[in-house]
Design a protein that fits this description.
The complex is a heterodimer of chains A (about 260) and B (about 280). By secondary structure, chain A is α/β, with parallel strands linked by helices. In chain A, about 35% of the residues lie in helices and about 25% in strands. Chain A has a domain at about 1-75 and about 150-160 and about 180-215 and about 225-255: P-loop containing nucleotide triphosphate hydrolases (Rossmann fold), CATH 3.40.50.300. Chain A has helices at about 50-55, 95-100, 105-120, 135-145, 165-180, 190-200, 230-250, and strands at about 1-15, 25-35, 40, 65-70, 75, 80, 150-155, 185-190, 200-205, 210-215. In chain A, the strands form two sheets. In chain A, strands 6-7-8-3-9-10 form a six-stranded mixed beta sheet, with helices on both faces. In chain A, strands 2-1-4-5 form a four-stranded antiparallel beta sheet, with helices on one face. In chain A, α4 runs parallel beside α5. Chain B has a three-stranded antiparallel beta sheet, with no helix packed on it. The chains are: A alpha/beta (about 260), B mainly alpha (about 280). At the A-B interface, β6 and α4 of A face α7 and α8 of B.
């Protein structure tokens, strides 16, 4: 069972040529995620959502505090789905998937093909990314993240660059694979509807990267946005989101934990 | 735009028949324009040779072609051509090895970038004839002169393109690799080198052409065999036909290397850039 422990995490970006002042992306964030849960992290721009995922993935260093992603006490294997697919354009789809694997064998190719099949792309394994649509490329990105058999799955607004219909279809794919694999998932989004549809728990961050609220979602899966129960939860989350916006505007927002 | 049968269900569409016809016409149009260009060149040459110059000053194209055929069937043709090609290839390979080191230094060190940029610019600015004369003075008549000169003039082009390719690598792909736990060597071989290859190739192409010319010029001054030496020998005996015949053969070899080596490598490396199928959401 994977655990992600975030303790007093702070990230401050120093001034650059474009930003004369330093920017605080995360400000003393504390969070604990245990078990095979799907956690959505929502917040407005500048609340440090992507920075948080990058630190968990180990591609950015915190200014202070710590992040530990563990599986049975050892460092967890991370799978990352980015905002854009980030495929290597000179490799075919299947080779892109194999790139993130340590062993290269017939078995790993079969595994890659299995996950491609799960996202409905088994017939494009030997095509290049430029021959695929944006939605298909993102599906490859999702399949690639699952291929490494991740203990912790990080998803950074994976549907934000897609049109509504393609995003809808990708959420279905993601939900289906996640229900089969049940990985610990951290899903960053600014779309409350997406968060309610996919997550067991929603953590709200306010600007400056401070936790504001933590909401458990206990609705059965699979969820459809049109379901009345889903809509009720959405309304509740949106109400709290608006309250956070107002609180931030009037300077009364407090960290929830 | 009409759509053709799909390659992958609901996803990738093939080019329509109309688009294929248009592509075929475009290919033939390109070939015809190349042929037309050469025809105009030969035509102008013929007219100028016929009406402006004497045959001793500028022989007509068919006379040069006959002479080139005679040269081609001579026994010493292969000796001379082999000598020139071996030297230019040796100089080019040395430049390639040197450029990898220099390119890495320029791409990843500000200090080296400042130092080497001006040095390479200096080498590019030196008149090629100075290198040729200098090698005659320093090395005498030796095969080393053409090799070293070819290396010297080729190095800046490969180095600059390699450095440009390395600094232009999409940083997001490196972050992706790191997030999946790829090691530094895996990132170098999996991301940095492949994404710089086309840039390196375009530098190599230019460098090879420059190295060829330099090697030839050095042979004119400081060699006892090779195409450059043969051009000089023809010039010394006022054999303009022989001089032009060797020059034409040199051009043909250049074109063959460009089309059979560099263009093929480029086609292979850029396969992923020219998808033959359209895309849909």
């Amino acid at each position: 069972m994977a655990t992600v422990l975030i303790e007093n995490l702070t990230k401050i970006y120093p001034p650059t040529l474009n930003h004369a002042r330093q920017v605080q992306a995360l400000g003393g964030l504390n969070m604990s995620i245990t078990g095979n849960v799907f956690v959505a992290i929502v917040g407005p721009s500048g609340s440090g959502k992507t920075t948080l995922l990058n630190i968990v993935a180990g591609v950015e260093r915190p200014t202070s505090g710590s992040v530990r992603a563990l599986q049975e006490g050892v460092p967890a294997q991370i799978g990352y789905v980015f905002q854009e697919p980030r495929l290597l354009p000179w490799r075919t789809v299947v080779d892109n998937m194999l790139y993130v694997q340590d062993r290269k064998s017939d078995r790993s190719r079969r595994e890659a093909e299995f996950y491609l099949q799960m996202v409905g792309l088994s017939e494009v394994a030997d095509l290049y990314p430029s021959q695929l649509s944006a939605g298909m490329q993102q599906r490859v990105g999702i399949a690639r993240a699952f291929l490494v058999n991740p203990d912790v799955l990080l998803l950074d607004e994976p549907f934000s660059h897609l049109d509504a219909l393609t995003g809808r279809s990708l959420r279905d794919y993601l939900q289906r694979i996640w229900l089969q694999t049940r990985k610990t998932a951290l899903f960053v989004t600014h779309d409350v509807t997406e968060a309610v549809e996919l997550a067991d728990r929603i953590i709200m961050l306010r600007p400056g990267g401070v936790a504001y609220d933590d909401i458990a979602i206990t609705l059965p899966r699979p969820r459809r946005p049109a379901d009345p129960a889903v809509r009720d939860v959405q309304d509740e989350v949106l109400r709290r989101f608006d309250a956070m916006g107002a609180a931030v505007r009037f300077g009364t927002a407090q960290a929830a934990r | 735009m009409t759509t053709a049968p799909t390659v992958a269900p609901g996803s990738v569409s093939a080019l329509s028949a109309r688009e294929l016809r248009r592509a075929a016409w475009s290919r033939w149009g390109y070939r015809l324009s190349v042929v037309a260009g050469w025809a105009v060149f030969v035509g102008v040459w013929y007219l100028v040779a016929r009406f402006v110059f004497t045959p001793q000053q500028l022989p007509q194209p068919h006379v040069v072609a006959t002479e080139a055929w005679d040269v081609l069937t001579q026994r010493d043709f292969s000796t001379n051509i082999q000598a020139s090609i071996l030297r230019v290839v040796a100089g080019f390979l040395l430049a390639l090895v040197l450029s990898v080191g220099l390119g890495l230094l320029i791409a990843y060190s500000k200090w080296w970038r400042r130092l080497l940029n001006s040095l390479l610019l200096f080498i590019v600015s030196v008149p090629t004839v100075s290198f040729a004369i200098l090698s005659l003075i320093v090395l005498g008549i030796s095969p080393m002169g053409p090799i070293i000169n070819a290396m010297l003039v080729a190095t800046p082009y490969i180095t600059m393109n390699l450095a440009q390719g390395l600094t232009g690598v999409d940083r997001r792909l490196i972050v992706m690799s790191e997030s999946f736990g790829r090691t530094r060597p895996q990132i170098i071989t999996g991301v940095l080198i492949p994404s710089s290859l086309l840039s390196i190739l375009s530098g190599a192409r230019l460098a090879f052409a420059v190295a060829w010319r330099m090697e030839l010029l050095t042979e004119v001054f400081a060699s006892s065999e090779g195409i450059g030496f043969q051009i000089r020998r023809s010039f010394e005996s006022y054999d303009i036909r022989g001089m032009l015949a060797w020059a034409v053969l040199f051009i043909i070899i250049m074109l063959l290397i460009e089309n059979l080596v560099f263009r093929q490598i480029e086609r292979r490396l850029s396969r992923w850039r020219s998808p033959e199928v359209g895309t849909t959401q």
